[in-house]
Amino acid sequence: MAIKTITGNKAVAHAAKAARVKVIAAYPITPQTTIVETLAEMTEHGELDAKMIRVESEHSALAATLGAAAAGARSFTATSSHGLLLMHEVVWWTSGARIPVVMSVVTRAIGPPWNIHVDHNDIWDQRDSGWIISIAENNQEVFDLTLQAFKISEDPRVYLPMIVGLDGFILSHTVAPVDIPEQEKIDNWLPERRQPYVITPESGIVMGNLATDENYYMMRYSIQAAMVEAKNVIKEIDSEYGEIFGRSYGGLVECFHCDNADYNIVIAGSWSGDAKEAVLKLREEGYDVGVMRVRYFRPWPDEEMRGLLSRSKGVLFIDRSISFGGKGHLMTEALTNLPALANLPAVRGVIAGLGGVDVVAEEFYELTKKFIEEVEEKGRFYDPLYWHIPMVHREKYKPRLPGYELTCYKR
Amino acid sequence: MPIKLRDFPRTHFNMPGNAACPGCPETMGIRYVKMALGDKAVLVIPAGCSSVIQGISPKSGINFPILNIVFAAAAAAASGMKAGFEMLGRDDVQVVVWAGDGGTADIGLQAMSGAAERGDDIIYICADNEAYMNTGIQRSGATPYGAWTTTTWTGKKEHKKNIPFIMIAHDAPYVATATVGYPQDFIEKIRKAASVKGFKYIHLLAPCPVGWRFDPALTPEIAQLAVKTGLWPLFEYHNGSLRISSFSRMYRNKEKRTPLEVYLKLQGRFKHLKEDDVKVLEEYIDRLWAWLDLLEKASHPSDTAKQLVKESK
Fold it and tell me: Within the 47-76 window of chain B, which residues sit less than 8 Å (CB to CB) from chain A?
C-alpha cells in the first residue's frame, strides 16, 4: 500500500499501469492530456510494458484501441469533450463488437464557444451506445473505478467496453491522496484478460460483416441483456474490492443518508462532495435530507432510483448537463420509472454548473433548503427545469435576459 | 523467380457464396493477397464493397480472419491490431488493410497518413475502383477526369488524386502500384511488402464492370490496358528509390503505348468524352510520367552524373 498525493489524471494512469495494459492509443485534448503524458513517460521509462500509439485523432485512438483489443491485448484510451464526440462512431462500433476496452472520459464542456471546464454533456452523450458508463467523485474513486473497469468489462457475463468519467480540472488537475494497493495484491485479484473472441490468423473469426436483420436484432438484445447482468457484476466487484482493498462504494449508486430521508438530492460527479457537505449542515439543522450519488449512468440504477422516488417526499435532481428541448439527464433517466410508482414525490430538476460554472456547498444548501420549504408549504409539485444561477454571477446576469426571468428569481 | 499462378494449390482462396458481382476485381485481388501471404495474415476492412462481398454472417465468403471497421479508421485499427500482436509476442502476423479508394483517398486518408507517419508495421492495400461503387457509383477523390458517375453526370471535372505519390511523400519504406491485370506483379509486390518493416502501401487498380460500364468478362483486359496506355504506370518505391516495374517499362516510350481511346471506348463511363477531354487525359499521362521520370532519376543518379563525379576527382 502506498499513499500518493496525485491528480485525478495521474490516478487514471496509475490504475492503467496497475492493470498492466498492453496497448494505449490516445490523442491529446485538454483536460485529458496529463493522462497521455504520464502513460507515455511510464512506457518510455520502462515502468510499464505497453505500446503507446500516438494517433492523429480520437477517431483513430479508439479504433486502434479496439484493434489491439481484438488481437487479444488489454488496451486503454482516454479523451474528453470534442475528442469523445469525434470518436462517437467508434464508440458504437466497439460495444457492438463486444470487445472489452476501458476509456477514461475527463468531462468537459462542448463548444462553441470554446470552454475547457467541467460539464457532463460529453459523457452522457454516450448514453445509448452500449458502453458501461461510470463517474467518480474523487481521485481515490477515479483510481478504484478505473482498475475495476478492467475486471467488469472483461467479465464473461458482461463483455462490454467501459467508460470511467472524472470531472475536468476539479479532479483531473487537483491533487489529493490516493491509496494505490500493492501490485501483487492487484495481480491476484485481476484475472488475465478474457474476451469473447480474438481475431488471429488461426481463429478464422470475422467480426462485423453483414448480418440478417433478425441476427442484428438479437445482437442488440444481447447487449441489453449484458447490461442487466452488469448490474450484478458491478455490485459483486464493488463489494469484493471492498473486502480485499478496503474500499466499497455501494454499487451503482452511493447512498449518503438517503436510506430513509424524506428529501433527497440526486447528483453525479465531483460536486457530490459539496452536496454532501450541504446535506450534513441541513441535517444538523434538523432537515431530513440525504444524497443519492449516481456512480453508474449505464446500466442505470433502476431499482435504487425507484426505491428512492417511492420513499421520498421530494427529490431534487442536480444536472450538470441538459438535453436541449428536453431536460437534465439524471432527472430524465430517473423519471422513466414513474409508471412503476404508487406515490409520486415532489420533483425539481436543477440545471447548474454548465461549462464549469462553480457551485459551492452554500448554494447546494440554499437550493435544497428552498426546495424542502416549498414542498412543505405547497405539497407535491413538478418543476423540471430550474436554472440555477450561481451566487457570484447573480447581479451580472439579472438584467441581461430581458423578457426571460430565470426561474430562481421567480418568487 | 517468376511467380506462376498455376503452381499455386487448387484451393479456395475465396469461398463459394461470396456476394461479389460478376467480373469483380476485388475478389481477384483478395485471392492474390491470399496467394501471397497464405495463412499468416488478418484483414482489416473499412466500409465498402468488400464489407458486402463477405456475405451474411455468421459465415464469410472471404478466406481470411477479418476485423470490419468504420469507414474512416481502417489504418488506425490495423495499427492497433499490429501493436496488440507485437505485445503478445506474435510478430509473425501480417496485418493487412484492404480498403477501397473512398476509404483511402477520401475519408480514410487522415488515419492512413497517421499510420504511415508513425511507421506502423502494416500493409495497406487500396483496391481502387475509382468511385464509391458500393453505394452506387458516386465520384471519389480517385475518380479520373471525365468519368461519368451518379454524382458527376457530365463527367468529373478534376483529375484523380495521386495517392501513391502522397505516400512516397510520407517517406514510407515501400510504395507500389499494381493492377488485377498482372497478378504475378501484384503477388510479388505483396511479398516484397511483407518482407519490409514499417508502413507499406500498395495501390491496386481494380476495374469495376458495374461502375465503369464494361463487359464483366473484360476486367483483366481493361486493367492491362490501363497499364499499356500509360495511364496506370506500375512502379515500386523501396527505401527511397523508385523503379518502374517490368510490365510498364516499355511504356516509358510514348510510341509503344496503346492509344488511350482503346481503353476509353471499352467503358461506358467515358462514352460522352470529346476529343478535347481525351487530350486533357493524355496531358495528364505525360505529366504523370514526367514526375515518375524525375523521381526515378533522382533516386538513381544517372551514369552521366557518376561520370562527372569521376572526372572531378
Answer: 51-52, 54-58, 60, 62, 64-70, 72-73, 75-76
